[in-house]
Amino acid sequence: MSEITKIGNLTPRSRGVNLIAKVVEKPEPRVVSSQYDRSEHKISEALIADDSGAITLVLWDDNIDKVLEGDFIKVTNGFVKVFR
Q1: Closest by alpha carbon to 24, among 72, 59, 58?
Q2: Residue 63 contacts residue 42 (beta carbons within 8 Å)
Q3: CA–CA gap between residue 3 and residue 75 (Å, rounded)
Q4: 19, 21, 73, 76: which has the fewest Cβ within 10 Å?
Q5: Residue 4's closest CA among 50, 46, 63?
């Protein structure tokens, strides 16, 4: 695996991110419509953190059930997207 990035070092242009973080909070999923084909999807905006900071990780559909509060997760080849 490539270099592990700390959350505190992420920028709005970060791409190809590999990090390890703890799931601090995972709210109940909500339903949204895709802007591309108007299909419905479930999302949960989980708060993840490491020793350098915290960030929101958006979990989609089947990935929501793979993550629990308190879990340590590894994100591979992730990216940052600024929304609102």
Answers
A1: 72
A2: no
A3: 12
A4: 76
A5: 50
